[in-house]
Fold these 3 entries.
Entry 1:
Amino acid sequence: MYRPKTKETRLLYEQFLALVSRYLGDVSLPDLKSAADEVLAILKTEEGTDAQRKAEVESILDRLSDEVFNQMTVLAQQFVDYAIEDEGGIQRGEEIIDVNVELDESEESGAEDEGDEDDENRSDLE
């Protein structure tokens, strides 16, 4: 769930919530924030076209005019501290980077050789 970090982004988030609430009607604050977070996540993604993002937003908020969609998009772009937090409050960035680790064969065989020596030492003690 998005949480604003600065005074400016808090004000933007309040404007964004007000805009989203126009399309949801009378809902609880947690439901409003949940819907706003979904819309914000859609608008912050760089995948797809504007038309595709608008269709996704409309699946949550019903039909939007192009003007309102553009207004939401402009607001979303101003959330400079945007990061998603999981339920434990830990931030997850928008991008996950995989790192491959390759072991040198000598390192692998060295570890096996050490294990063999340990086995030999154990048998000497017995």
Entry 2:
Amino acid sequence: MKKQQKQFIIICVLLVVVIGGYFGAVAYNNAVAAKEAAEEEASIVYYAQLDLDDIVAFSYTLDDEVLAFELVDDEWVYTDDTSIDIDEDEIEDMIDVMEDIEATDVVEADEYDSDSLADFGLEEPVFTLTVTLSDGTEIEFTEGDKNTVVGYYYYMRSDDDRIFLWGSTLDASFTSTIDELTVEEDTEDTETEPEETEEADATEADATEAVDTTEE
């Protein structure tokens, strides 16, 4: 009997050790995975990572024209003419790209001559986007030439001395003209009103004709 109790105790101890080892291994693996994920995230360089709710104004160049928009009473308005009804969804779609732009590569400030920006097409950018944040911070994002060897485009931002490389063009998200961003008026109701009036007049005429026929 004592032998059986001893064996039972040994089995319980071994079971506790095995279970403890299992959970210990799981905890260790989770810790390693979390560390690797943190290191990977830390190694990512973002050209832009803005909180869209912080953007209160922005402007961009389109065909040598600057289109500027700002938030007024939580609604986007065209700065040059606030009477224009702007399509809010179109605006949100445009600035959505600024929430997360992960750079493919980066040229550190000490790896290029500041006088050689023309070599990257950044002395006279092909596209400029200026964003104003709720704290008053203004950041200018500029797009330069394409590196035909690697297939990426050069970018800079006014608050950073580095040159960023990204595989897409930023200006592709900002191609809408003010006409395309203006909400179209619903003319369906006004167009049907004359038809309804004509039908009513026709019905009234038929009724009058029927009365006249009856009286005769």
Entry 3:
Amino acid sequence: MLLCRRLDSQSASMNGTPTFHSCGFRGCSTLRVALFGQSDTVTSANIGLAAKLWENAFMPSSGDKPDEVFVKLFVSAYENFAWKDSQICWLDKHVDGAVEALVTRPDGEAMAIEHTLIEPFVGNKRDFAAFEQSLEALRADQSLAVQNAGIEVYIPAGTMDGQKPAKRLKIVESVRSWIAANRLQLREGQHRYECQVPGEPRITLTVKFKPWRNANSPPGILVVGRQQIVNDLDKVVEKALRRKLPKLVNTRAARHILLLEREDFTFDPELIFAEIERQRPSFPSLNGVDEIWEVETVGYKSIGYVGFDMAVGSNGPATMCFQNGVLTGHSGKDGIPYPM
């Protein structure tokens, strides 16, 4: 509400009649007119007021959302710091259907940036949340481990998704019972086993068992995880392009950047780029995207690592790497590292 009130205050100061109102940001007509004029068209020339109200430092703060952190890091070192003094306006926070960020340099040149997460399969994020919540206690139960051995139990992805809490609990208890009954007679290597769930379809578990023959090996461990069983990257990419391309290419700016985040090791980023090229005939608006970058965030939560790699088809192998918000290396579109 504060931003909206400040906006009204500045608008009212022009006619000497201060007026204030409070509302949600999305769809606010006062905000919309101030940002875009009566036409609702995003341009580099009419974001001056917005930039003043929402000027951002580039270094991430604890209150930033992850996607905002990634955009700030990207802009801070993009093209060998050519955009480091720019102002970032987070348009999608205030106007439905707007691009995520409009970045404007002091010379007035603007760059539109849209970010999206590429999931390993449709519904991965929702499935992951259900899985983590359901299996927390099972993972912590190391009484199921075998001394001097490692056990990895993989449950098919999607098993927990959409299930009611009582059914999730039944599945977890069935897996726990199966591990307890079979842990001492597992075959070495990777094998599949059927797990019975009372009143429900059986679950096929993929289990890896590896004895540790070194006398100095640590105590046994048990790892429980998900295993992807469906390959529908084509649907994931299609959904992302359908949702993100229109607002990106319809934003008036000198260049348009699409950031594709990968937070899971399940698939190689080249598969994403290849799938985009395969679907290019169905999305002619891809021609309005100047550059596509992969944002590597697999280690972001654990070690603070974020990596940016430009799709080769976008011009060349430019890269940027950050550790805990600090640039650790970057190269140009010719692949030659910049001096640090």
